[in-house]
Amino acid sequence: MGKNIIIVIADSNLETCEILNDAFSAEKDFKVAGTVGDGKAALELIKRHDPDILIMDFNLSTYDGIKLLERLQEVKKRLPEILITTAVVRESVLNMAYNFGASFIIQKPFDVQTVVERVRQITNRMPELMTRTPAHERSLESIVTDILREIGIPAHLKGFKYLREAIVLTVNDMEIINSMTKVLYPTVAERFNSTWILVERDIRSAIEIAWDRGNIEALQKLFGYTVSGKRGKPTNSEFIALIADKIYLDKKDREWRHGK
Most CB within 10 Å of its CB: which of 123, 159, 190, 225? Predict the structure, then answer.
């Protein structure tokens, strides 16, 4: 039986905090760990409670919203899913938030039920949240999610979820990488109600974004000299296979060390 989804709310508007707290406290499968109006206090609350969901505004004291997201990247290996409610509509700021992994951005003033529905959309697509497994027993999907986020692929891209699914499928069946267009792409497409051509295109776009604007240090660890060398960007199959192979070998190493 799953445990409650833990939520932290960070908003400088006390009334907004109260409205959101009341709405989620009324839902039997959610638990609000705390509400704060200060970005630094929010960071400490997140570190202490390790929430599944962070609902936040950009307008926070001490650390503003962007600073809070930056600090989260530095101190948390398992980031919460992020939903932003804000009156800010500047495209550059919103794009920055998405690049930090925000799942949804809802403009204020908002309908509180819309926020609840968006949080449910997040939790419904991440079934591992409902079981809250310990860090050493994390799901394969969450491991892949962390790797893709670390190398700098924005979570809002369609290519992000396509890549994640493709890597998970490859870890479970390493031979599937030899049948990209006949098996892998169509399987991913079927699961997301898309086409294999769109899956291939969006995965390519996500990889190019990582290569052009991603975390160079993280990419270097995975791909070595090819990041800055003359070989250029890896193909979709090379990218997927390398990450899948790393996860597979790490898994086997853990099993060997634990005698499984």
Answer: 159
